[in-house]
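Long-time lurker. I teach an intro course on protein structure, and each term I like to show students one example going from raw sequence to a predicted 3D structure in token notation. This year I'd like something fresh instead of my usual example. Would anyone be willing to generate the tokens for the chain below so I can use it in lecture? Attribution to the forum is fine with me.
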Amino acid sequence: MDRRLTPSNGRVAHVSLRGKVEADKFVDGERHRVQSDVADLLSAKGNRDRQLLRGETFTVLDSEGSKVFGFAERDSYVGWLQAADLSAAPNSCPTHKVCVARSYGKSTPGLKSMGAVAPLPFGVAFTVTDQSDGWAKVAVSQGLIPRDAFVPANHLCVVDHQFADPVQVAQLFLGTPYLWGGNSSFGIDCSGLVQAALLACGLPCPGDSDLQESALGKTVAPGTAAKRGDLFFWKGHVAIAVDSETLIHANAHHMAVAYEPIQDAISRIAEQGDGPVTRHARINQ
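-- Reply from a regular --
Happy to contribute to a lecture. Here you go:
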């Protein structure tokens, strides 16, 4: 079984695995909300596999020291979080999320008012308690502003808002630094960009590029002209077509989310020894 999708650490396992794996006990787990803006989801060795954002749900199955073990609701990705990254109010439901590339929360409302400022990445969610004069008051339990904060209201949308075009979402991340295992507009990798783009449009998407290659879309015959939103896969990499000639991807060559001509990317990746395109997929929307 793939450890990334198997909610068991040998000691504790989710009840869905009863009879499939060995464990001392099987539990339903407890759902919690992430309260850090960006939280690293770690492997058993402590390496960052992926990241979760404020407001996302994580089911805790076990704890050990300062860490908890479980899985993310958005894609069932399994791993360890710092316990401090989770809220003590697991049933709280966010009302709004950041729907621009990056925003900020201030300790005081008003365009020219002074006070502490904390950056907020795309997709973080929280509860809006009041709105006035273009500012939304949000409850922030952890971060650089450990109290109520004020966010530009036009940087927010209701939490169940869905974008219509994954490419439009991916383009919000242009220039974002490349970060292995990253899932935020502070730092993101190739599969994180694809997942952010699809989830924002209400389309399910796994967390890593190999899982995405196995699960997403319909295979297009080699040589077929790309359409907007198509996915190109290589071994360990994925990119999104912007049009028939251009793709957008988070990549270590540019160390950022960048545009690149499709044929240039195919040639460059082959020349650096990472092989040919392994799949061209078309997403059904």
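Some talking points for your students: The chain has a mean pLDDT of 94. The two ends are 30 Å apart (CA to CA).
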